[in-house]
Write a structure and sequence with these properties.
The complex is a heterodimer. Chain A is mainly alpha-helical. Chain A has helices at 9-26, 61-65, and strands at 71-72, 75-76. The longest helix of chain A is centred in the first third of the chain and has 18 residues, at 9-26. Chain A is flat and about 55 Å long. Chain A starts with 8 loop residues before the first helix and ends in a 7-residue tail after the last strand. Chain B has a domain at 4-256 and 464-482: Amidase signature (AS) domain (Amidase signature (AS) enzymes, Alpha-Beta Complex). In chain B, helix 5 runs parallel beside helix 6, helix 7 (221-231) runs antiparallel to helix 15 (464-477) and helix 9 packs across helix 11. An eleven-stranded mixed β-sheet of chain B has the order 1-3-2-4-6-5-10-11-9-7-8, with helices on both faces. Chain B has 15 helices and eleven strands. By secondary structure, chain B is of the alpha/beta class. Helix content of chain B is 38%, strand content 12%. The chains are: A mainly alpha, B alpha/beta. Chains A and B meet through helix 1 of A and helix 9, helix 10, helix 11, helix 12 and helix 13 of B.
Chain lengths: 83, 490
């Protein structure tokens, strides 16, 4: 599943019910004629901002690894991927 | 206990400058106030007493050397727990980040640090800023200082309750669909959501990136202007932050409001709203009229579609933003898993609360093949229409005035069983995020139960100074902002 959530049967039940209500409410959008309306992804006028390509941050490997659930030397450690 | 905690930022700043108050005294008084009221109010996830005293002492040392930094030097503030403060836990109200120590400062935290502000703690919020009551926090709900059986609003509920309860002189919140303004209204404080892009989002835990914006809460409009001055401006680390020039907000605060053209949108006075809210807001509008502003009724015809559009756009963005909580690089990991996929799924199922899961499910659904056009793209087109409605009104008007929410603060537990009812508490604030506009909330009355009502003032993009000017003029003519919460000891 896309959401990568492992839901219990009870969770699935209440979610199905609640999402059903929410989606029914969201259906009201279909009333709006948007045939000639462009979509807005962002309200900021997007323009390309160029800057020099150089490293601006000091290396902080230890600070970043300090929050790792599991590590091995300078690496994040995860369960076996290839069976 | 002293009354120092009751000082506004401006009052405290004057006393610090005169030298008859030290930053350490002010910080100690604020920490004592937190200790006395926190068991009842629970505004904070983490109180940073040691950091606060250290920063206060540094402010005093600067002042002794004649190197005071400005109006925030030595001022105790609370920071919402989605905003990183280097070396301090950032949980976003989620147990999945229960042990996460921020390795760097958010740009707004760095700016406050550079201005000499004192951080007294990280304020409670709904998990990942998703909610309108703080009841979705993994760390328990905050309480409304006006009535402890009621919610302070959300998601920046702790930021609002801390300011109302005088546990900080001001605070930072974030606002994606009303999360600064709705709690400010519920708690009777001033809250400002700046224009999208006015304030950097770097180092702020993301919920919905095209809508999220950081902003200040305080007990006066003047104090909000002081905070915004420090927060606003371009940040090379946030490509969506604007290069639009930052005006001198406090210098523009005291301008006359005579001749300003205000718009009252008829869609914001709906059936089913609490009658006292409508009365208070209409009285406030008449007050602005008596100060010389011109008021006209207008229409924002697509208002009723805002919540539906928001819950597709925000959840779509959230489902993508929250994909990063996979138990690999940071955050809690569920170790009882046979393989990587199972680890992801269990970590996320155990780490996220019910509302976060609902929004991830809704967002992935809205984005999935086959539904993308009907839901996500449709919502983005409606977003265009909503923004267009506002811009049309702004062609002839300087500000739009509305209620902040259809009712005053609701009771804890009242809306937790029905997510859609909870969503509807943001009905008057959400459009402003979709359109990317600034919105200021100021207290404008009390209902029959003695609960605060908020007036919302919305202006054109990057015209925060006009909202602040109107809010300040209103504040000078009324005394709602001086009312003291009745649910706790003053």
């Amino acid at each position: 599943m896309l959401a990568r959530l492992e839901l219990t049967a009870a969770e699935e039940d209440s979610l199905a019910h609640q999402l059903g209500d929410i989606l029914a409410y969201i259906e009201t959008l279909q009333e709006v004629d948007t045939s000639d309306v462009p979509p807005t992804a962002h309200v900021v006028d997007s323009e390309n901002l160029l800057r020099e390509d150089r490293v601006t941050n000091a290396p902080q490997v230890e600070a970043m690894l300090a929050n790792a659930p599991e590590r091995d030397d300078h690496h994040f450690k995860v369960p076996r991927i290839i069976e | 206990m002293s009354d120092l905690h009751r000082l506004t930022i401006a009052q405290a700043g004057e006393r610090l400058a005169r030298g008859d108050l030290s930053a350490r005294e002010l910080t100690d008084a604020t920490l004592a106030r937190i200790a006395a009221t926190e068991p009842a109010v629970h505004s904070f996830i983490t109180v940073t007493a040691d950091l606060a005293r250290e920063q206060a002492d540094a402010a005093d040392a600067r002042r002794r050397r004649g190197e005071a930094l400005g109006p925030l030097d030595g001022i105790p503030l609370a920071i919402k727990d989605v905003i990183h403060v280097r070396g301090v836990r950032s949980t976003a109200g989620s147990q999945i980040l229960g042990d996460f120590i921020a390795p760097f400062d958010a740009t707004v935290s760095a700016r406050l640090r550079a201005a000499g502000a004192v951080c007294v703690g990280k304020a409670n919020c709904d998990e990942f800023a998703m909610g309108s009551s703080t009841e979705n926090s993994s760390f328990g709900a905050s309480r409304n200082p006006w009535d402890l059986e009621r919610v302070p609003g959300g998601s920046s509920g702790g930021s609002a309750s801390a300011v109302a309860a005088c546990q900080a002189l001001g605070s930072l919140g974030t606002d994606t669909g009303g999360s600064i303004r709705q709690p400010a209204g519920c708690c009777g404080v001033v809250g400002l959501k700046p224009t999208y892009g006015r304030v950097s989002r770097y180092g702020v835990i993301a919920y919905a990136s095209s809508l999220d914006q950081v902003g200040p809460l305080a007990r006066t409009v003047d104090d909000c202007a002081t905070l915004l001055q420090v927060l606003a401006g371009h940040d090379p680390a946030d490509s969506t932050s604007s290069r639009h020039p930052v005006p001198d907000y406090r210098a523009l605060l005291r301008r006359d409001v005579r001749g300003l053209r205000l718009a009252l949108p008829r869609e914001y006075f709906t059936e089913g709203m609490q009658p006292e809210v409508e009365q208070s807001v209409r009285t406030a509008v008449r007050q602005l009229e008596s100060l010389g502003a011109r008021v006209e009724e207008v229409s924002l015809p697509h208002s009723k579609y805002a919540i539906a559009a928001y819950y597709l756009i925000a959840t779509a963005e959230a489902s993508s933003n929250l994909a990063r909580y996979d138990g690999v690089r940071y955050g809690a990991r569920e170790t009882d898993a046979a393989n990587l996929l199972e680890m992801y799924r269990k970590t996320r199922d155990h780490g996220f609360g019910a509302e976060v899961k609902r929004r991830i499910m809704l967002g992935t659904y809205a984005l999935s093949a086959g539904y993308y056009d009907a839901y996500y793209l449709k919502a983005q087109r409606v977003r265009t229409l909503i923004r267009h409605d506002f811009m049309e009104v702004f062609a002839t008007h300087d500000a739009i005035v509305t209620p902040t929410a259809p009712s005053t603060a609701f009771r804890l537990g009242e809306k937790t069983a029905d997510p859609l009812q909870m969503y509807l508490s943001d009905i008057f604030t959400i459009s402003v995020n979709l359109a990317g506009l600034p919105g200021l909330v100021v207290p404008c009355g009390l209902d029959a139960s003695g609960l605060p009502v908020g007036l919302q003032i919305v202006t054109r993009p990057f015209e925060e100074e006009t909202a602040l000017q109107l809010g300040h003029a209103y504040e000078q003519a009324t005394d709602w902002h001086r009312r003291v919460p009745t649910g706790i000891a003053a």
